[in-house]
Design brief:
Layout lengths: L5 E3 L4 E7 L4 E8 L11 E2 L5 E2 L2 E4 L8 E5 L9 E8 L12 E6 L5 E5 L9 E10 L2 E11 L2 H8 L55 E2 L5 E2 L5 E3 L1 E2 L2 E2 L3 E10 L9 E7 L5 E5 L5 E2 L4 E3 L13 E6 L9 E7 L9 E10 L5 E6 L8 E9 L5 E10 L8 H6 L2
Parallel strand pairs: 13-15, 14-26
Antiparallel strand pairs: 1-12, 2-7, 2-9, 3-4, 3-8, 5-6, 6-7, 8-11, 9-10, 11-12, 15-28, 16-17, 18-23, 18-25, 19-20, 19-24, 21-22, 22-23, 24-27, 25-26, 27-28
Length: about 400
């Protein structure tokens, strides 16, 4: 799904889970036609796990938390249920974190739709999905609205009471900000208000990717999990790029045979194709591989993958670049592994990621390119090690990283 899109629900009981590389807290709010809760009892989370027709389901650490909606049990006055998510760690933002919401049939677990909100940055909470009633039928809509002031901002927007500390005498409270009449409710530690010295910021505007790095200032050196938007001056910069991958043996005189590959995925993390030494061209020529380097010796890139962004078919929205050791050598036997993004027209190096720290594994996911709903592409440094000697073994772990 893309922001604003909707689907009819084919199941009367649905579960919305939200997965990410970090632990997330997931909540649900039951809203009336005016977009507000009836009382704080309509705020469903881990300390208040059930309400009329809506329950919170903990993942137990092995699965993402979820909000389950039984549409047959939702009261007539409730028009929608919004599902929210926020990082569990205090102060953590969604910068470099790509949460994915999955709407499922709650009875058999079948996935009905997935949604990954694009262009996230300094937001600390999100309205991810809403389940809503329209002309007697139930639908799901992708939202992706970010808030810079956490669940406190979401809660107060929808009418949940948040205990306010006594305001400093010198700080008047504007009439427009008068709090909603309090209703007794369990206290959620995640929406405890900040200290008076640091008042909450206004909600982050959806298009603004706070803290997002772009190419306005030239070449970018990425750290692990950082993301760069491949735009300059607000406009897409590139039509064709090269991803160069290089490495050297950690021990002089010892060859090391690694294989660089790129795996292409669709919007539902479905595997489309893989480009590697055994298949040098995929997606009708939009992606081409330079061929296999058997030793890692020599200066410069060991293997190059050319990506014609303008020719990538619409169904391909994610590319994951990987390196594998087919002969079984581990990455602690590799030195100076890196990947770099190059403008194919000018030869200019735009983005570089040097892999620091190695693990005794045979595969590594170096970077990914993700197409946003605006049409622009973003590159994220990964550096995630996997036990796999071939690109085939990278397909499932790479899909989970999208």
């Amino acid at each position: 799904m893309t922001p604003g899109s909707n689907i009819p629900l084919s199941a009367v009981r649905v579960a919305v889970d939200v997965a990410a590389p970090v632990r997330l807290d997931v909540s649900g709010l039951l809203l009336t036609a005016d977009g507000k809760v009836r009382s704080d009892d309509d705020f469903i989370f881990y300390n208040q796990p059930s309400g009329p027709g809506v329950t919170y389901r903990a993942g137990g650490g092995s699965a993402p938390d979820a909000i389950v909606v039984d549409t047959t049990a939702v009261p007539p006055g409730i028009e929608k249920i919004v599902v929210t998510a926020s990082p569990d760690a205090a102060g953590q933002t969604f910068q470099g974190v790509e949460p994915t919401a999955t709407v499922r049939n709650a009875d058999d677990g079948t996935a009905l739709a997935t949604f990954t909100p694009p262009q996230l940055g300094g937001e600390t909470a999100l309205v991810v999905i809403e389940i809503y009633r329209r002309n007697g039928a139930w639908k799901a809509r992708a939202v992706g609205q970010g808030y810079a002031n956490g669940l406190a901002g979401i809660a107060t927007d929808f009418g949940v009471s948040v205990e306010e500390p006594a305001a400093p005498a010198a700080t008047p409270v504007p009439a427009a900000a008068a709090p909603v009449a309090p209703v007794a409710a369990p206290v959620d530690p995640r929406i405890a208000p900040p200290a008076p010295a640091a008042p909450p910021a206004p909600p982050a505007a959806p298009p603004a990717a706070a803290g997002k790095i772009n190419l306005d200032k030239g070449r970018v050196n990425l750290q692990k999990n950082q993301t760069v938007s491949l735009v300059k001056g607000g406009a897409p910069l590139l039509s064709k790029v090269k991803m160069g991958l290089g490495w050297e043996p950690a021990f002089r005189g010892k060859d090391i045979d690694l294989d660089a590959s790129v795996i292409a995925y669709g919007p539902n993390r479905n595997h489309l194709d893989s480009c590697y030494f055994g298949k040098l061209t995929i997606l009708n020529g939009a992606i081409k591989h330079s061929g296999d380097n058997l030793t890692g010796e020599g200066a410069g890139d060991d293997e190059v993958i050319v990506v014609d962004l303008g020719r990538i078919p619409a169904e391909a929205t994610g590319l994951v670049f990987t390196v594998n050791s087919f002969t079984g050598q581990k990455f602690n036997e590799v030195a100076k592994a890196y990947c770099r993004l190059i403008d194919a027209a000018s030869g200019e190096e735009l983005v570089r990621f040097d892999l620091t720290g190695a693990e005794p594994q045979t595969g590594v996911m170096m970077a990914k390119l993700i197409k946003q709903f605006t049409g622009e592409w973003e590159m994220t440094a990964m550096g995630e090690f996997v036990k796999s000697r071939t690109v085939r073994g990278m397909v499932k772990p790479a899909a989970k990283s999208l």
